[in-house]
Amino acid sequence: MQITELSIPSHERVLRCEDASTGLCALIAIHSTVLGPALGGVRMAEYADQGAALEDVLRLSAGMTAKAALANLPLGGGKAVIMGNPKQDKTPALLAAFGRHVEALGGRYIAGQDSGLTVADLNQIATTTRYVVGTDDAVAHGRTRASGDPSPATALGVLHGIRAAVRQRFGSAQLSGVRVAVQGAGAVGGRLVEHLAAAGAEVRVCDIDPTRVEPLTDLPNVSAIALADWQTAEVDVLAPCALGGAIREDCVAALRAAIVAGAANNQLATLGAGAGLHQRGILYAPDFVINAGGLIHLKRRSDGADDAAVLERLTTIDPTLTIIFERSSDENQAPSAIADQLAAARVRQGAFRLQRRQAA
Ligand code: NAI
């Protein structure tokens, strides 16, 4: 086990974790523990180089701090990436080695699921650390408890967020007849399509994997849309639920939707894309606010809350977004900028309270 501490001023700690015997090469980024332990998913992916992996983990971990702050959860922000192809390089030994690195951090970082990892993989990580959420009941132990797949809660939270945005833009939260184009029909996007169809929306959906789209088109008012046509579809809501960077600054002019509200992390390729949406009057639901349902589920379930309590808490995404939309309108600033400011203020308040407690 080899650990190298990287000095990154924006983050509390960033560690490169290596293990020659299993081929593990991972980065764990703890952005902030001011509001609580840094909970964040573990992503396994092939990166062009370590610089690209570092950039990803730094951005994602900072996003987790903001997400927890605006969801009012006593959590900080962290994230981990394991460099490698999840289909070829993921072995039980490699995951166990990663878990040992997480355990060595003593609970400052709590690992969860992200792309490239399954609940079974988290079970494997949980063989060597107590600091993991999203495992299933069979392996739950120690301080954290089983919480399972967060995707259904994320999808439901996004549905609440879409309702908030539709109310803000059209005056009613009714989704009947509202036209939504969903990009990515995976764990979250697929469920979101089901919820939208059940609420009477007219849904168009695309995915690079057509087998994910096909079963959804059996639902009422759901049809497929070509990948190339998704972004410029004549719809009310664009819901990016695939990977990050779906909304690029240079594409904003071509959008025909009134709202962008979906699950994907880092939906805006650049800050300028957020400003561009605002200038065009397209209402954007900041990603780390609307997609917080999974984090809410993981935290509340691992604290012992039942399903009803988690569902109740997911509804708070709607009023949080409404506050952001109202401020955005009052102050003529993009909702993404307002959300960043609110999150930063909550962290500052937390730091102030912490200092006072330490001084007392
Ligand atoms: P997933 O991997 O299950 O689904 C992603 C889907 O997008 C896949 O079906 C994939 O084929 C498709 N896809 C990839 N590139 C595409 C493209 N260019 N065009 C169309 N489809 C494309 O992932 P999941 O869990 O559904 O997550 C979706 C997004 O939501 C990700 O950005 C993730 O970071 C974010 N998110 C997920 C949470 C969760 O609880 N799973 C929580 C918060 C955010």
What does the model show?
- It is a single chain.
- This protein is α/β, with parallel strands linked by helices and 360 residues long.
- Helix content is 41%, strand content 18%.
- It is built from twelve helices and twelve strands.
- It has helices spanning 50-70, 92-104, 119-125, 151-170, 187-198, 210-213, 271-279, 287-290, 293-302, 307-314, 317-331, 335-359, and strands at 2-6, 13-19, 24-32, 38-45, 76-83, 109-113, 179-183, 202-206, 222-224, 237-240, 259-260, 283-284.
- A six-stranded mixed β-sheet has the order 1-2-3-5-4-6, sandwiched between helices. It has a six-stranded parallel β-sheet with strand order 9-8-7-10-11-12, sandwiched between helices.
- The chain binds 1,4-dihydronicotinamide adenine dinucleotide.
- Residues 115, 150-151, 154, 183-189, 206-209, 212, 227, 241-244, 263-265, 291, 294 line the site of 1,4-dihydronicotinamide adenine dinucleotide.
User: Percent of residues in beta strands?
Assistant: 15-25%
Envelope shape? globular
Ligands in the model, by name, code or SMILES, are: 1,4-dihydronicotinamide adenine dinucleotide
Count of helices? 12
Helix content: 40-55%
Question: The biggest beta sheet, please?
Answer: 6 strands, mixed
- Give me the count of strands: 12
Helix-strand pattern, N to C?
EEEEHEHEHHEHEHEEEHEHHHHH
Strands of the widest sheet, in order across it, are 1-2-3-5-4-6
Overall pLDDT metric: 94
The SS-based structural class is: alpha/beta
Low-confidence parts, pLDDT < 50 over ≥5 residues? Answer: 140-144
Radius of gyration: 20 Å
Distance between the termini: 39 Å
